Known about the structure:
Elements lengths: L2 H21 L3 H11 L6 E5 L10 H15 L6 E4 L9 H11 L7 E4 L5 H14 L5 E3 L3 H15 L4 E2 L4 H7 L21 H4 L2 H8 L11
Parallel strand pairs: 1-2, 1-4, 2-3, 4-5
Helix pairs in contact: 1-6, 5-6
Amino acid sequence: MKPTTIKLLLICLVACPILFTSCMYSKKQCQKSYAKVEKETFDVIIVPGAPMDSKSLSRVLKARIYWSKYLFDKGIAKNIMYSGSSVYSPYYEGKMMAMYAEAIGIPKENILTETKAEHSTENVYYSYKKAKKMGFTKIALATDPFQAKSLKRFVNKRVSKDVANIPIKFDVIRSLEPTMISPEIDIQQAFNKDFISIKERENFFKRLRGTMGKNVNKTYYE
């Protein structure tokens, strides 16, 4: 069997269950998850990043950042931790998201960053460890329903069952869209001068292990 064929089979084995379960995360389930937490207050919410190499926010990242602002404005989140290293581009995802968050009105003193994570599993794992080290006890994950569902098993098994899940309610995002902007920021503040793409540092199989949470460095934030 050709190496490329093996890669495709492995991708399907990993991605298909995730896609299947994520598609099952219905609007009703998102509302149910939100209903569980709307009267609670979390010390910090974790917001995973995504590759960024320009001043324009992708729709996914814009939704994640504005959802975190919504939760902050509602008093559900006291603080927000944006997570992401410089993985596929030379810009730290966590830092860029933090700059956008401050630009749209979240106070700087309530914005935190985590910049070691290179996969969504690590976004949660490292952010949780950093948050606990900082003394936070009540922690939640706030992201889009697709990612929230795909991470649920990992979070429960490898992080903590106490991490609450607050998937984005897209009806809220749609209502905010007329006011949602991509403010100008100085992206050079998030530039990593020592950047080497993960594709150059790790082969396909190592990156696949990372996606599954197999490359977690447990010594970070000890």
